[in-house]
Amino acid sequence: LDVITLTTDFGMGKYVAAIKGIILGINPGARIVDVDHNVRPQNIREGAYVLFSCLRYFPPSIHMGVVDPGVGAGRRNIIVECTDSLLVGPDNGLLIPASRVLGLKQVWEVKNPRFMRPKVSPTFHGRDIFAPVAAHLSLGVAPAEVGAPIEDFVGLDFGSHSVTEWEIRGQVIYVDRFGNLITNIPREAIEGWAQFGEELAIQVGGRAYAGPFQTTYSTAPKGSVLLTISSSDLLEVSVNMGSASQKLGAREGFEVVVGKT
Amino acid sequence: LDVITLTTDFGMGKYVAAIKGIILGINPGARIVDVDHNVRPQNIREGAYVLFSCLRYFPPSIHMGVVDPGVGAGRRNIIVECTDSLLVGPDNGLLIPASRVLGLKQVWEVKNPRFMRPKVSPTFHGRDIFAPVAAHLSLGVAPAEVGAPIEDFVGLDFGSHSVTEWEIRGQVIYVDRFGNLITNIPREAIEGWAQFGEELAIQVGGRAYAGPFQTTYSTAPKGSVLLTISSSDLLEVSVNMGSASQKLGAREGFEVVVGKT
Amino acid sequence: LDVITLTTDFGMGKYVAAIKGIILGINPGARIVDVDHNVRPQNIREGAYVLFSCLRYFPPSIHMGVVDPGVGAGRRNIIVECTDSLLVGPDNGLLIPASRVLGLKQVWEVKNPRFMRPKVSPTFHGRDIFAPVAAHLSLGVAPAEVGAPIEDFVGLDFGSHSVTEWEIRGQVIYVDRFGNLITNIPREAIEGWAQFGEELAIQVGGRAYAGPFQTTYSTAPKGSVLLTISSSDLLEVSVNMGSASQKLGAREGFEVVVGKT
């Protein structure tokens, strides 16, 4: 497992560089890939969504995730063993949605100081624990050498959605760079329920719009609201050639209701 | 061709990471280089300038570019075969100015689904078409296996400039991070016409300034307007130790007129 | 020395990409690591701090740093030979604090045009001098082949601190992404002087606060001011779950006085 991916809220800079230096010192052959270092500071749910939505596209890899408001306050450090890949990070839910996609087999608590740096900073486990653990795992060290199995790890999900004959309810879980609102409503829920091309009622944060359910952005008039399926197979509220977040004044956590007209 | 460069308007984050995951799954030996992911959303001209100005410094490589407002609306996907390198992206002009620098030999339309992901998202060809195509090309697959030659590809240029005895006219095509205004006026046009050290009249967006034509920034007084040759061999309007864009209120598209005083 | 790190004020984009292209053309096996490209434009001290705080975590490497307001104005280009690593960049102090950490042995002025690009842009030594020099060094070329030893290189430090029985004085040298204020007061100065858990008087920029000296952020009440040791072993003024920079209106250069209550 030569590939080691990194996802943090550190910003691209010297903290991430220190992590890479530690990894390359242990495994000079590691192929390090930056996934995202601009997770909003301490926003575990956003980090979890980033990991959830893109780790599935990687070959078998080591995935390190650090969004860690509880660092130094006693929360555990974990390895999540999945079908072909290993995830490393804090036990705060961050790694769990992605791990379920990758086939979660066993969670291990990191215990063995032999795979940590000799002196562990209480504020920078990314550098002193997760980086050396990830590098050793990429060299073939087994999770069982690094720690002990646990069952009571901290979970996290993206909330529930509901489907009735007349409406589907869910919520915005991510706003992308283009202002598209990604919801927690899966492709399966909407595809049987509405037809492509169908005009639907769309409520976001209590305000009402109407727009078509489409396979792509660009067939709608410029500036119009529309529903589409995101590249992560989730229902997405978009504005053609514009920002849905700005036009609808919506952000993460807003309720979304899609209804028959 | 182990090097695969990436230029997009996705922002550095999970979309780019998905592309890297797909590439590494197909060619684990690929050396992926991020060129720029902060092209302003859907700004094809800016993306084209980024590619134009820096691909020339790479060894023979695969270059993937994705600034793609028309994704899913029927525009073609292309490979541009150049003297030593291959470019992959949408058929919207994005790849063309750089390809001319690299020696454009033949444009191919991507056709063969064998080199795409099994299910192609209508909104994310970067992940589902361009990434696997780029990875296969880097493994030695020939463009002729992936598609068919076309002649009617979409072109793009950076506008024309004119030179008379008394003035040179062009336009701002890029504003860099320091606020320097890069124009479409080539080194050849200005170097014969003015002498280094000569004081010139400079109009930007209809407002008039005066400043010297210099070989470097730092010989001018702090805050003064000056003309120099950018590292891409284009005439550049700069402010020493400051931002020309801010001081002159100028941005991409503004007309630039340089005159004899 | 396969690893080449890059630290600049260019922003992640086409200028950095050009540098990577040049490096990969000379040494296709180079493992390029981005340290930070968002050093504030022309802020040599910030760049020096970035290098100082993170190069120590790398295995023996080539480190290239470019924050270079004097480019083209006659300042020298240097290689700093340290115990196991080599640094390349302008002779303006940028590389010196990090070099002292890595064991500065000898500074060399870059002289030999054989290791530069044939035509050197006066505004982009990063691409035309530092990149090819770094790539050749990573291939095993010795500094003595590239240049000549010098002794009168430009130095830089982070200011002094003072310790009395009643107070420690220093200054803010870096504000991180979370708004933590990193000072130039080393761990050794504070650890003997105060106890973990002790309540101290904290003056920042002339305004007075009080807060505990802690081993970590998260044991303090949310929003409260506290002192801790940064991951670089420097005293840090923080606000738990908040930004000290915002709350205290403080930035780089502000005086910090820690006193007994």
Word description of this protein:
The structure is a homotrimer of 261-residue chains. Chain A has 261 residues and is α+β, with helices and mostly antiparallel strands. Chain A contains 7 helices and 15 strands. Chain A has helices spanning 14-26, 44-54, 96-102, 125-138, 143-146, 187-191, 244-248, and strands at residues 3-8, 31-36, 62-66, 77-82, 86-90, 104-110, 147-150, 162-163, 167-175, 181-186, 199-204, 207-212, 225-229, 234-239, 255-260. In chain A, the strands form 2 sheets. In chain A, strands 8, 9, 10, 11, 12, 13, 14 and 15 form an 8-stranded antiparallel β-sheet that branches. In chain A, strands 2-1-3-5-4-6-7 form a 7-stranded mixed β-sheet, with helices on both faces. Chain A starts with a strand and ends with a strand. Chain A binds chain B through residues 2-3, 5, 12, 31, 33-38, 50, 53-55, 57-59, 61, 176-178, 215-219, 228-231, 241, and chain B through 10-15, 17-22, 24-25, 28, 32, 41-42, 69-73, 121-124, 127.
The first-to-last residue Cα distance of chain A is: 51 Å
Task: Report the structural category of chain A.
Answer: alpha+beta
Largest interface: A-B, 32 and 28 residues
Oligomer: homotrimer
Low-confidence stretches of chain A: none
Mean of pLDDT of chain A: 93
Summarize the structure.
The structure is a homotrimer of 261-residue chains. By secondary structure, the first copy, chain A, is of the alpha+beta class. Helices cover 23% and strands 33% of the residues of chain A.
Key structural traits:
homotrimer; alpha+beta; 8-stranded antiparallel beta sheet; 7-stranded mixed beta sheet; 7 helices
